[in-house]
Design a protein that fits this description.
With about 500 residues, the protein is α+β, with helices and mostly antiparallel strands. It has helices at about 1-15, 20-35, 40-85, 215-220, 230-235, 255-265; strands spanning about 110-125, 150-160, 165-175, 185-195, 205-210, 240-250, 275-280, 295-305, 310-325, 355-365, 370-385, 390-405, 405-410, 415-425, 435-450, 455-465, 480-495. It has two domains: about 1-70, no CATH class; about 105-495, Porin (Beta Barrel). A 16-stranded antiparallel β-barrel has the order 1-2-3-4-5-6-7-8-9-10-11-12-14-15-16-17. Mean pLDDT is about 90; it is low at about 1-25.
C-alpha cells in the first residue's frame, strides 16, 4: 500500500493532460493486487518499473512541447496587451536621407574639348596657261608647300547657371593678315555667352563673337564636315563664318533634341542655331575690326523634320543685308601698266561701305545611310569690276550639291565616301579688292573614321577657280584662273 501511494504521488505530481489515464490504470492495478493480500511479485514490479520509465520519457517530451506552446502564447499575450493599451510596437527606423550634394561652382561645370587638323596638298596637274595653284580656304595649296596645321582648336563650354552658358574657342593655327611667311598664331574664333529666358532654353540671346546664322554648312563644325573646306558660294558671305554681334534664337524642345541627336548619332549635324533666329552684327568678319558705322541684319528659319521611317532632314532659308567696307591692295589693272589701288575701297576714301545682300536656301537629307546636301544663294555685293579699277555692287549667284554614304563596320571604323560639286560667280568681299570669283569644281573624297578620336580624309579635286592673290607688280595680271587637279590629305585627332 505504501508503495502504491508513493508511485501514485510521483506520477500525479508529474502528470499533465492525457497522462491522467495512464496514472489511473497503473494505480488501479497496484490496488487490485494489494486488496487480494498478495505481495507484488518480481515480474509485476519489473513491469511496473518499465511502464513507469516509458511514462517518464513521454512526459518529458510532452513538457518540452508545452514549453514551446507557452512561449508562443506568451508572445501573443504581450502583443494583445499592447493593442489593448493602445501601445504599438515601434516602427522600423527609416533610412537616413543622403546629405544634400554641395552645389558645384561655375568652373566645375566647364568642359574642355577640341581637335587638330594636319594637312598636306599636292598639285597633280595644271592646265596650260593656268594661273598658279591656289585655294580660297587653304593657303597651303600651291608651290613650295608641305605639311600644315590647318586648325588647332580648344573649346571651353558649359552652363555656368540655369540661365547662362558660355562658349570660348581660340585657334592656335591662325595666320596674321599680310604675313605670308608666318603662321600658328592664336586667334579668337568664338567667344560668347548665351542668356536663357528660362530653364527650357527655348528662347535665348547670344552676345559676343560667334557664327552668323547664314548657310547650314557654314554653321557645321570643321571637325564634322566631310570636305576639307566649305563651299565658296555660301562661305564668301562672312569671313571666318563669324562676327561680333547680338543674336536671338528660338529653339523648341523637340528641335533641341533633334539637333543634339544628329550629332550624337554621328550624322554630321550642324548644331543648335535655332529653328528661328535673327540678329545684328558688325559685318566685317570674325576677328577683323569694323570699318563703318553700319550694322548687318540677318534672319534665318530652319525646320528639322523626322519622317515616319526615321529619316532625318532639314529645310532652311536665310538672308542678310548691310554695307561692307572693302580693303585694298595695289594691282596692275588687267596686267597692263603701273599698279594702283582700285577705287571704292577704304584706302581710296570709301568708308561708308558698299551694299551687301544675300538670300540662301538649304536642303539636308542626313546619311542614313545615303545622304544628300545642297545650298544655293544669290544676291548683290561688293566686287571688283571687269576693268579691275573699281569695287562696285555686282550680282552674285551660286551653290553646291553633295551626296554621301555612311558605311559602318564592326572592326574597321566608319567610312563616308562623298562627292561635291560647286559653282559660283560673284565677289569675294573679304579678300583685298573684293576680286570677282569664278568657281567650277568637282570633289571626290573619302573620310575614314578609325575611331571617335581619329579620322583621315583623302580628296581628289578637279578645279577651275580664280586665284585671289593680288600681285603688286607692273604689267602683272592678278586674279587669273587656276585650272588643275589636286590630291589632298588631312589627319584629324579629337580630344
Amino acid at each position: 500500500m505504501i508503495l502504491t501511494l508513493a508511485i501514485t504521488s510521483m506520477l500525479v505530481s508529474r502528470s499533465h493532460c492525457g497522462w491522467a489515464v495512464e496514472v489511473d490504470s497503473i494505480t488501479a492495478a497496484i490496488e487490485a493486487s494489494a486488496s487480494e493480500g498478495a505481495e507484488p511479485t518480481t515480474e509485476s514490479m519489473e513491469l511496473l518499473m518499465r511502464r513507469l520509465n516509458e511514462a517518464e520519457q513521454r512526459l518529458q517530451a510532452l513538457e518540452w512541447d508545452r514549453s514551446q506552446v507557452f512561449s508562443n502564447d506568451h508572445e501573443k499575450m504581450l502583443d494583445s496587451d499592447k493593442e489593448s493599451t493602445g501601445t504599438k510596437p515601434s516602427p522600423p527606423e527609416p533610412p537616413k536621407k543622403p546629405e544634400k550634394e554641395k552645389e558645384k561652382s561655375w568652373y566645375d561645370k566647364i568642359k574642355l574639348r577640341g581637335y587638330t587638323q594636319i594637312r598636306i596638298n599636292e598639285v597633280l596637274d595644271t592646265e596650260e596657261g593656268s594661273a598658279p595653284a591656289s585655294y580660297l580656304g587653304d593657303s597651303s595649296v600651291g608651290d613650295n608647300q608641305g605639311f600644315i596645321i590647318r586648325r588647332a582648336r580648344l573649346v571651353l563650354s558649359g552652363d555656368v547657371s540655369d540661365y547662362a552658358s558660355i562658349y570660348l574657342q581660340p585657334d592656335f593655327a591662325s595666320n596674321v593678315p599680310g604675313l605670308s611667311d608666318s603662321n600658328q598664331f592664336v586667334q579668337i574664333r568664338d567667344w560668347y555667352a548665351d542668356l536663357h529666358f528660362d530653364k527650357t532654353k527655348v528662347n535665348r540671346i547670344r552676345v559676343g563673337q560667334s557664327k552668323i546664322p547664314f548657310g547650314w554648312e557654314n554653321l557645321q563644325s570643321s571637325g564634322n564636315r566631310l570636305p576639307l573646306d566649305r563651299a565658296d558660294p555660301t562661305n564668301t558671305a562672312a569671313k571666318n563664318e563669324r562676327d561680333l554681334g547680338v543674336f536671338y534664337y528660338w529653339t523648341p524642345e523637340y528641335a533641341q533634341d533633334f539637333y543634339k541627336d544628329v550629332i550624337n548619332e554621328g550624322l554630321k549635324g550642324s548644331g543648335n542655331y535655332g529653328v528661328f533666329g535673327l540678329g545684328f552684327y558688325n559685318g566685317q568678319g570674325g576677328s577683323f575690326r569694323e570699318q563703318n558705322d553700319n550694322l548687318h541684319f540677318i534672319t534665318r528659319y530652319n525646320q528639322p523634320l523626322t519622317l515616319a521611317n526615321g529619316q532625318r532632314m532639314e529645310l532652311g532659308i536665310q538672308g542678310y543685308t548691310g554695307r561692307y567696307t572693302v580693303l585694298s591692295s595695289a594691282i596692275s589693272p588687267l596686267g597692263v601698266g603701273a599698279t594702283a589701288r582700285p577705287q571704292g575701297t577704304l584706302e581710296t576714301g570709301d568708308v561708308s561701305g558698299i551694299r551687301d545682300q544675300r538670300v540662301a536656301g538649304t536642303f539636308v537629307y542626313y546619311p542614313q545611310p545615303l545622304g544628300f546636301q545642297s545650298e544655293w544663294n544669290f544676291g548683290r555685293g561688293p566686287s571688283l569690276n571687269d576693268e579691275q579699277t573699281e569695287v562696285i555692287v555686282r550680282d552674285l549667284h551660286g551653290g553646291y550639291a553633295m551626296t554621301m554614304y555612311r558605311i559602318q563596320t564592326c572592326n574597321y571604323g566608319e567610312f563616308f565616301p562623298f562627292y561635291r560639286y560647286q559653282y559660283y560667280e560673284g565677289g569675294a568681299k573679304a579678300e583685298r579688292n573684293a576680286p570677282y570669283l569664278k568657281v567650277d569644281e568637282h570633289e571626290l573624297g573619302l573620310e575614314w573614321q578609325l575611331n571617335k578620336y581619329m579620322e583621315l580624309v583623302t580628296m581628289y579635286t578637279l578645279t577651275d577657280r580664280t586665284n585671289l592673290r593680288a600681285i603688286n607688280s607692273t604689267n602683272q595680271l592678278s586674279y587669273g584662273q587656276f585650272e588643275g587637279e589636286l590630291l589632298r590629305f588631312q589627319f584629324q585627332f579629337n580630344y
